[in-house]
Amino acid sequence: MFLFLSFVISLPPLVASFVHPGLLVSDSDISRTQKKIKANQDPWTTSWNTLTNLPFSDPSYTPSPVSAVYRSTWEDHTANAQLLWHDVAAAFNLGLRWKISGNTSCADAASNILHAWATTLISIDGGDDKYLTAGLQGYELANAAELLRDYQPFVDNVLPSVVEMANNVFIPMHYRWLNHEEPSEHNVLHFFANWELCNVASAMAMAVITDNQTVWDFAVNYFKTGDGTGAINNAITNIIEEPGTGVLLGQGQESGRDQGHSALDMQLFGVIGQQAWNQGEDLFAYNDSRILRGMEYFARYNLGNDVPFVPYTNGIVSYTEVSSASRGAIRPTWELLYNHYVMIKRMDAPWTTLYLNNTLDYYGGAEGGAGSWGEGSGHYDGLGWGSLLYRMDESDVIAPFPSKSASPTANPTSSASTTLNLAPSAMTTTTGASDQSAPVSHSATTNFAAVSTTPRTQTFASSTISDDNFPQLRGPKSHLRVPNKSLLEITWPQSEAIFKILYMYIYMYVCVCLLLYIVD
Ligand SMILES: *[C@@H]1O[C@H](CO)[C@@H](O)[C@H](O)[C@H]1NC(C)=O
Ligand SMILES: *[C@@H]1O[C@H](CO)[C@@H](O)[C@H](O)[C@H]1NC(C)=O
Ligand SMILES: *[C@@H]1O[C@H](CO)[C@@H](O)[C@H](O)[C@H]1NC(C)=O
Ligand SMILES: *[C@@H]1O[C@H](CO)[C@@H](O)[C@H](O)[C@H]1NC(C)=O
Ligand SMILES: *[C@@H]1O[C@H](CO)[C@@H](O)[C@H](O)[C@H]1NC(C)=O
């Protein structure tokens, strides 16, 4: 009888809901960052100063919305997608600035940018590359909106129009593209992985801001088992053994094409993995951590080492060897990837570790963010700010991993040769000194960080700076305290109506039994 009762009481909640903010940035990321900045620690402080001194993070930033966006010139329309990616970068940066500092001028400015676009944009148009804009700027835009989810003036006045834009413009495009409804997709492997991955990322992000479980499931299921290149098993085409060690590495779908686009795939894996992680779904671990295997392959090759290559064809292009074009490509994503696998999961990721070191040297110690490290579309494919948002030191991971902290020496990643040097003194090298490895030409780069002339001192609203740094340990989806993947997977299958019906049925049955028992 008592067993029955406790069974009934401990049943999981019936209604699915999303965690907010729950895309690229969680509340625990924000409180960790606040603590680090308050203590004047690097790289957080350096990164924060870079962020707050950008024109793209200034509350006086003025948006330039248009009704139709074109990524490239199309018929008599000129390319104007830079208007969107600049404004989205500003909305995200200002939202982040508000989250960290509590300065509502920043939240209002971010909210105004989103309002301007949500009430002006009607279509993303042009050739197939409109899907790149929908995917890349879509997930960024949704992430900017998600940051403001607990800013009431935004929720009351702007969020409904953003949701409408998501439902009218973005989500239908993600469905159309991932369902291969364009004539050019008659071969479902036609388009390179980044074209689909960005649409998966944006569908997930749009699902969260619209609270639409159907869209979320569509995107996550596509990533797991889709038939195109945006499904992880097709985006990482082959699992091969590393020469010498036998460690498994993942050859990328774009490895034979060039390294700049392969780097974009790594960046999008980071987005997809992080967005899912913050909703309690571990795509980073999916299929034997296939994302990690892909990162390790990429990093090993791009650091100047050989990699095995399995001939690739999709029926349109064929590659027989890994491409050295744009080898060493740098994109701001390695803090996220490194901190997830090495710091949170305690996994071995030696090439990723070295690649993070390499990219941090390039960025001068703190990973760049939207608008801080150059111009051109490639610099706006991701939001960056990894050193600010994802960097953890040992004190930050002890709490989420009580069992691991008891025996740190069992950690396979503790080998000194691959551990990143976290000393603040190492974070003072020259910014942007080298352009040897950027995927996009730096010759035409405008350095916005340098343009900004008046460094501002950010005032912290004391109420938002909290020493209570692990709010994630309280939430129902706080998987950080449960590192064991098999435990993570014991979650209620919220999306399946059949289970809900079954649930109701069992519940009623148990109640009737109880009643009969009591009446007896
Ligand atoms: C969720 O998205 C799907 C697919 O776009 C749509 O058919 C459905 O109406 C949406 N649900 C809600 C509640 O908006
Ligand atoms: C994992 O990848 C292998 C190929 O490397 C594939 O055969 C298998 O179906 C994949 N499993 C899942 C669950 O995706
Ligand atoms: C990268 O590694 C080198 C050599 O170990 C070290 O001197 C440098 O400080 C590291 N850079 C960062 C940003 O940790
Ligand atoms: C918020 O930021 C704006 C612009 O940087 C600044 O003028 C204002 O003083 C700040 N407000 C507070 C309360 O710190
Ligand atoms: C996770 O937990 C299960 C059940 O307790 C156990 O069998 C498994 O070995 C654990 N896995 C890891 C990686 O600790």
Quick summary of this structure?
The chain has 520 residues and is mainly alpha-helical.
Compute the number of structural domains. Answer: 1
Name the hetero compounds present: 2-acetamido-2-deoxy-beta-D-glucopyranose
Structural shape? globular
* CATH class identity: Mainly Alpha
As laid out across the biggest beta sheet, the strand order is 1-2
Helix content: 40-55%
Signal peptide: 1-17
Domain Alginate lyase: 75-303
InterPro entries: Alginate_lyase_dom (IPR008397), Chondroitin_lyas (IPR008929)
Protein name: Pc20g14330 protein
Explain what this protein looks like in three dimensions.
- This is Pc20g14330 protein.
- Keywords: Lyase, Membrane, Signal, Transmembrane, Transmembrane helix.
- Pfam families: Alginate_lyase.
- Residues 1-17 form the signal peptide.
- With 520 residues, the protein is mostly helical.
- The chain has a single domain, classed as Alpha/alpha barrel (Glycosyltransferase).
- The protein contains 21 helices and 6 strands.
- The protein has helices spanning 2-9, 27-38, 44-52, 81-101, 104-118, 130-147, 152-157, 159-178, 193-210, 213-225, 232-235, 259-277, 286-302, 334-344, 350-363, 386-389, 394-398, 402-405, 448-451, 485-488, 497-519, and strands at 68-70, 123-125, 236-241, 248-252, 312-313, 318-319.
- The strands form 3 sheets. Strands 1-2 form a two-stranded parallel ribbon.
- Helix 5 (104-118) packs across helix 8, helix 6 runs parallel beside helix 9 (193-210) and helix 13 (286-302) packs across helix 15 (350-363).
- The longest helix has 23 residues, at 497-519.
- Residues 7-15, 399-419 and 421-495 have low confidence and may be disordered.
- The site of one 2-acetamido-2-deoxy-beta-D-glucopyranose has 3 residues, from loops.
- Residues 59, 103, 105, 456, 459 line the site of one 2-acetamido-2-deoxy-beta-D-glucopyranose.
